Amino acid sequence: MDGDVAPLKEICDLSDRYGAMVFIDECHATGFLGPRGRGTDELLGVMDRVHIVNSTLGKALGGAAGGYTVGPKPLIDLLRQRSRPYLFSNSLPPPVVGCSTRAVELLLASNEIAQSMTAKTMRFRNAMTAAGFTISGKAHPICPVMLGDARLASLIADDMLKLGVYVIGFSYPVVPKGKARIRVQISAAHSEEDVDRCVDAFIQMGRKHGVVS
């Protein structure tokens, strides 16, 4: 929610020290973090030190539903027999499986998509920061534009929609009190022109509501 990345290398160091296993939830990393979009463990160079990865097919991979867990075979065998969400859920629709499989194939075939995401993310973050906005996190495509006041976040989001830019205001209880923000999510489908248009709309509405000068 804050657009930051877990200190996974340090977590793996603790795992080594205490003989623990490392489980990561990659729902906000799969498909765009790392040179080929494989996630936080690839980004931080610890793929061989993470034991279990849980993620979704319904976000960056575009499948709209479903998810997966990868890990040691004994664990996966256990989950197949004892995991209630797995046992009591219907199978994924074939189109979702096909779409998600193709998305993974595209990511593994070239680093172009992941690198494009990184470039567009930094284009947005740098331009917004230069304009006077506070953007939480560092290099994550989830870019929270911090505003503090819940009503202000809602008003600006509504005004942005009038300019043809769809963003969402988040406030308590989704985020802590006083930490209201508008969350912008950069997509591989966005062009540089789309990013620049979004920034221009934020500047226009930010000036209207007294957020930036």
TrEMBL record:
GO terms for molecular function: acyltransferase activity; pyridoxal phosphate binding. One of its GO terms (cellular component) is mitochondrion. Its cofactor is pyridoxal 5'-phosphate. Residues 1-202 form the Aminotransferase class I/classII large domain. It comes from the Eukaryota. Keywords: Acyltransferase, Pyridoxal phosphate, Transferase. PANTHER family: 2-AMINO-3-KETOBUTYRATE COENZYME A LIGASE, MITOCHONDRIAL, CLASS II AMINOTRANSFERASE/8-AMINO-7-OXONONANOATE SYNTHASE. Belongs to the class-II pyridoxal-phosphate-dependent aminotransferase family. This is Aminotransferase class I/classII large domain-containing protein.
